[in-house]
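WARN no homologs supplied; continuing
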Amino acid sequence: MTIGPLLLIGGRENKEQHPEILERFVELCRRHGGTPRIGVVTTASTEGQALFAEYSRVFRRLGVQQVAGLNVDRRVEASAPALCQRMDELTGIFFSGGDQLRITSTLGGSRFHQILLQRHRKDGLAVGGTSAGASMMSHTMIVEGDAHESPTKNTVKMAAGMGLWNGAVIDQHFSQRGRIGRLLSAVAQNPDVLGIGLDENTALEVRLEETMLTVWGASTVTVVDGRAIQETNASESDDNQPLALTGVMLHVLPKGYGMDLTTRTPRRIG
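OK structure emitted
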């Protein structure tokens, strides 16, 4: 049994001159030097065909000969035998951006979802996603939230994610849209999970089997660790009352840094 890698991207990844992040995903899909075979899921977007054409072009330019479109727009399609059979042939699945709730409401609990989890947890399937395609990977995901106010219990709306990484809650377009308050609110209500804030054109590689995180790309990943929270009013505060949080651990990690998931200790890589 081999747990596959995850590649979580904060959105707006470079697809042209130096597509380092997508190159890394292709490498993760090679499966010990083999031929990468990638499926692109565009369920999050209402412009799925255009997105598939864009990612197909990029992946083929990076040497991937087989790129399959997994364009699931209706829940009834998510358990179609032909779709599930195509998944068995792939070494990697990539989720485009859009609306993460479209992903979970269309695919969550379906045969597609069951095969995705099984192949990732047992067959080493690589799974990547950008923007909404990154946020949906956690067990509990951020659906929406106000990035311009002090954090409160109402700052974020949360829902069940796809459960590929159960120990985290993920936000994207992080620094560019000032979403630290959203992540703090999510961690205050779920202090045992790691809060992950992904900047644009930046990715976090998650190796659950090796319990390691590695940062790729041009900017940073912000990690909020709530296990050491000493004081919080999250349980008794009114919905719009500012949250109190003390003892929160925060790390800002660029490329060349990572984290040991077991000890939650950041470290320099290489």
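Residues 6-259 form a domain with the Rossmann fold fold (CATH 3.40.50.880).
OK
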